[in-house]
Structures are given as structure tokens and as C-alpha cells.
Amino acid sequence: MGRKRDQRNILIGVLLIAIVVMSVGYAAFATTFTIGGTATIPNSWDVAITNISVTNTTGNATSTTSTYTATTATFAANLTAPGDSIEYTITVANAGTTDAKLQQLVPVITGDAPAINFSFVNPPQANSILKSGEVLTLKVVATFNSKFEGIVSPDANSKAITITLDYVQSN
Amino acid sequence: MMKQSKFISIFITIFIYLLISNLFLIGKFNAIYYLWINPIFWIILFLICMILKKGYKRYKNKINNIQKVIIIVLFYIIIYFLLGLIFGFQYSPYQHDILSVIKNIWQYIVIIIFEEYIRNYFISISKNKVDIILTTILFIFIGINFNALFSNINNMSSLFQYFSSTLLPLIFSNALCTYLCKIGSYKLSLFYKIPIELIYIISPIFPNLNFLLNGFMNIILTALIYVFISYDYQKSEQQLSRIKKQNPFLFVPILLLGIILICFTVGVFKYQPMAILSNSMVPTYSRGDIVVYSKPDTKELENLDLYNIIVYRLDDMIIAHRIVEIQEKNGETLYITKGDNNPTKDSKKVKKQDIIGIVKLTIPFIGYPTVWLNELFN
Q1: pTM of the entire structure?
Q2: How do residues A81-138 score in pLDDT, each as one tens digit?
Q3: What residues in A contact B166, CB-CB < 8 Å?
Q4: Cβ–Cβ of B148/A46 closer than 8 Å?
Q5: String of b and e for B288-324 (b: at least 16 CB within 10 Å)?
Q6: Which residue of B has its CA nearest to A13?
Q7: Which CATH class is domain B271-377?
Q8: Which of A51, A65, A166 sits opposite B315 (nearest CB)?
Q9: Fewest CB atoms within 10 Å of the CB: B180, B280, B294, B357?
Q10: Closest chain B residue to A23, measured at CA
Q11: Predicted ipTM beyond 0.85
Q12: Do B147 and A95 count as a contact with CB atoms less than 8 A apart?
């Protein structure tokens, strides 16, 4: 029994060393790793996008995609003529137990429709606080640029945007 | 004071506290609640239980079991972080300055110590299985963040996500902690819970795991600890003399198979399964079948040909239809698709960037559970 106990202690030591080596390795190579976004941690940290919906459309605007994860919202708007616009509302909830601070809001636009523009309505500023229990709504509007003079191809009238919201713990 | 009346008094105290917290305190004094009110409540209750406490049952193999719990938890932590090499890493949302770390330890770890002590006290004064089950249910309720429950769940798919990533692991974890308290002491459950919570607080990065895999990993951890500890406990209680001994290592291949299956389902490998929801491709495959598709690389996309069955995204849907025409327009290849059972071609042309797979294999019928679940959710 005593020998088995010693063997287990050795195993615990080896596992702890493995964890230390992994930590040291991370510290040494942190700059070369590709690390993206902010993680969602079970139980205590729970800041996440909880909904995305189309709240207003004008003209013949349609929404082709709207998906979200905890930290990103992606949607694509189909606009064909001046006057077309579509408004999306993204809901972010802090259901965790600590206040959260917006580290960055990153929009990435994809698609080859030069006439479509995206704009934010009163976007939250960097370092703005989302208190525990609070809900934030972020409005994004896609509009067809009325000054656009080119020809709109039926295969190129859609543009997508992915918005990443990175929240961290507020002190 | 009789054991049963102690049990009922403390049970009701916690129940009323939970009720007041969720109906009034959390909404009104959110920050103060988590930083002060909640820890102080558990400290007071801990002190009361200490005063009321009488000798616990001693369990001989406590050190051995603590060692086993530590080994399994350390293995779990290593595997959890190694998964980041497959899925990528994400930054921790927690601050790592010394004050924030202390604050987080106070809010999340100190409470675990008091909670587990009180759970242990409950178990020590429980008279029957019903008391033990009630204790477990009470602690599951303590672990539920009702705030998150009501603000995050707005449709059936978010309910499923909450159930599989949070609620199910919480139920397993509490069942295990109760079991550990019953056969050993609260120290066993502390050695299970604290290292993991500590890693959440101090680690600067986390693997970017799918919610399903996250939940599954937590369940695997509880299952492994249960299997190894219960084996030793039964042996020590000499309960296995008439029962065939089951080596706990026999469970390892089953768990490995489970991990591989989950990885396959969530798309870690080149091949991924998909359940078919409609009959648009009959007779090739029909509703309730599973198709396995391969994720194409650039070369495979270039070599796509007529009559290949492709899996592609269209709006919020994923469709698996056959290519019936290929067009070139402004240097871009567009694929026209059609379901074998549909009278007309699909109206939307598919671009290369919308293609996520090429169907390689069909397995009949086994997709029905997914189909039913999908119908239930939508």
C-alpha cells in the first residue's frame, strides 16, 4: 500500500512538472501562437451575444444570413437599389457574476457589393462597462449607397459583416 | 437537536436564501451580492455547521483517494489544454493583476470550501437516500446562475446549449461531490473542484472548445473520478467479494471512443456527419439518413465535377444537393444544384466559398434522433 502511495506521489509530481513545462512553454512562445478572441468560461464568466434580429427593413432589402456565437455576430444583407436598408439588433448579455469591460469591437466586412455600407448606431466605446446582469443592444444598419453609380450585378448584391465583441473582466 | 431537524433547518435556510437572492438581491445589489453578501452567508452557515458538527465517519483510504483525484484532475487539465492545439486558443476574460486574482479567488474559490463543508455536513446528518438526493438537488440549484438562465435562453437551441454545456455537467459534478462527501470527506470534493476553478482564474488562455465538447469534457472528468474512486471504495468495503471485479481502466477505451465520436460530430476531422432533414435527394438518401462529407481543400474544390453531391450553406441552412450544371461568370465558377427528388433546379447558384463539403458516404436511418430533435426545436 505504502509503495503504491509513493508511486502515486511520483505520478502527481510528473503531472505537475508537465503543467509547469506547458506554462513555461506558453510564456516562451506566446508571441508566436495565434490566439483569437475571448473565451467563455463556465459558471462564473458569462458575457455573450444572446440574440441577433432584423428590426427594420426598407425597400427590397433582405437578410440572407444571421448567426452568432458567444463573441461574434455575422449577418449578410441583400440590397439592390438606392433606398434599401436593413437594421440588425445584436443583444449582448452579461449574465455572469462580474462586471465586464469592452476591450474591442472589431467589424470585418466580406463580400463584393461596393454599393452596400454598414454603420453602427451609437456603438459602445472601448472600455465601456457592461455590469453584471445588464443587457446591451447594438444596432447595425446596412444601407445601399445612394451615390453609387455603377451597375449592381445580381450575383454581387450581398455583403456580410462579422462583428467581434471582446469583453474582459472590469476591475 | 435531532439530526433530522438540523437537516431540515439548514436545508430551509439555504432554500430561503436562494429564493431571496434570485428574486431580490442579485437583481438589486448584483456586484455587492457576489463580492460580499454571498461569501458572508456561506461563512456564517459554515460556522453554524461547525458548531453543530459531531464526528464524521472515518474512511481509511482517504489519502489514496485524494491522490487519485489529484492525478485525474491533473491529467484532465493537461488534456484540456492540449485540445487547444487542435481547436486553437482564446484569451481569458479575467484580469490577472494580483488584486483581481485575489478578488476572484475570494468570490469563486473560498465559497467552494464553505459550500463543500456544508454539503459534507448535510451528508453526515442525512438519514436516508432521500436526504442525500435532496442535498444533491439543493446544491445543483445553488450552482445554477438563474440570471444567466433567463437572459441567455430565448429559444430551444439556446436551451439545448445551456443544458449540454452547463446544466448536465453541473448535475454530474454535484452528484460526484455528494458521492465523494459520502464515502470520504469534503476534502475529496475540494481536490476535485478547486484546481479546476483555480485554472479558470489564473490561466491567461483557454482552448477554444465547442460548447458540446466543453460539456462533454466536464462529464468525462466526473465519470473518471467516480469510476476510479468507487472501485477502491467498494474494494475497501469488501463489497466486491461476490461481484465480478471491474477494472476501472476498462472504462478508458469507452471514454476515448466518446471523445472521438464527439470530435467527429463537431467537425474536428476532415470527415463530418450531417443528418438529412428532407426527402429532396430520394432515392440517393432520404430523411433520417446520415451523410458523411469531406471538407474539401483547394485542389478538391477545383476538381468538382457534374453530379458530385456537395454540402453548402444557403442563408441559415446547410444543404446537400447534386451539381447539375457548372457556369463560369466573370472568372468565377458558379454551381447549379438540384435535389434528385425535386422537379426543378435550385434557384440560388452556389459559389465556391459557400461549399463546405463533398458527400462521400450515406448511412441510413441513424440520423432520425437529430431529425426529431430539430423538429422539436424548430
Answers
A1: 0.79
A2: 888 899 999 999 888 888 899 988 999 988 777 788 899 998 898 889 998 878 899 9
A3: 42-43
A4: yes
A5: bbbbebbebeeeeeeebeeebbbbbbbeeeebbbbbe
A6: B71
A7: mainly beta
A8: A65
A9: B294
A10: B203
A11: no
A12: yes
